[in-house]
Amino acid sequence: MSNIKLQETTVDECIQTTLRIFRTRFGGEGSSLDLANYIRYNPRFLISVPLPELTPPEHRWHIYDTVTKMIYGEATGMVEQDAAGERISLQAAEYECFVFTVGAQDTTAAFMSAFVDHVLRNPAVKQRLLEEIDNFDGRGRLSFPVVRYEETTAMPYFMACCQEVLRVSPSVSMILPRYVSPGGIAVGDVTVQDHVEISANPFVIHRSQNVFGQDADAFNPDRWLDDPERVRTMKKYFFAFGYGSRKCIGKNLAVFEAQKFFVQVLQTIAP
């Protein structure tokens, strides 16, 4: 996170540019905005400009096919290898390409859209968020013109809302495959042999009533303000960014940008 903080000024410029565009293009009464698509295809928003953002959306599958061929070696003659030193399969190459082309902009857009959606659908949540932000701002604990990242983490209810959005609506609601390490693994009463591919889905894990309570299907940020021991247990099974050594390498950048953006939107153009 320390290296990302060095880019905070750049993030601030992107956020301010985005909000100016929001006011200019969508500030009129009755105006509508497809937030996910705007973030996904707007190169001004993110610090880095992923490959799909350099071309119109209709050409993205052409890029997908080209990058897949590059990974597989058809375009370059350089062959990617797996852990065993064997040439990766075309399916594996396609999966890697999928991660490269949808990572960052698509997942960040999904997180931000889900946050706005849950806040608007829950007036009581929106009111508490606005009150907390106003309280911190009134005490001089929020910077101007753009809030600092550390300041967003100091607001408990806001952080609980971010955590709950990622629990209920994880940006990657799909299986995340892994190969079992040598020696196998025991999952409950089942023993899985080594080199077998297994996977888990964050959307399913996050709805375990044993971990997250009887209201696991409901959006309830207060669960993250509960007993500290229970919160530690929930964090242990929190899977929105993957887990272990293969956790999403873009997690810090995503939450860094998103938290600053959320507070800025609520503070300046609250719905």
Helix content: 40-55%
The strand line-up of the biggest sheet is 1-4
> Count the helices. How many?
13
* Secondary-structure element pattern, one letter each: HHHHHHHHHEEEEHHHH
The radius of gyration computed from the alpha-carbon positions, rounded to a whole number of angstroms, is: 21 Å
Strand content: under 5%
End-to-end Cα distance: 30 Å
What's the β-strand tally? 4
Descriptive notes:
The chain is 52% helix and 4% strand. It is mainly alpha-helical. The radius of gyration is 21 Å and the shape is globular. Strands 1-4 form a two-stranded antiparallel sheet. The chain has a two-stranded antiparallel ribbon with strand order 2-3.
Topology of this structure?
Elements: H1 2-5, H2 8-26, H3 35-41, H4 60-72, H5 90-102, H6 105-121, H7 123-138, H8 149-153, H9 156-168, E1 178-179, E2 185-187, E3 190-192, E4 197-198, H10 202-205, H11 209-212, H12 228-236, H13 251-268
Antiparallel strand pairs: 1-4, 2-3
Helix pairs in contact: 2-13, 3-6, 4-5, 6-9, 6-13
Q: Top keywords for this entry?
A:
271 residues, mainly alpha, two-stranded antiparallel ribbon, 13 helices
Sum this structure up briefly.
The protein is mostly helical and 271 residues long. The chain is 52% helix and 4% strand.
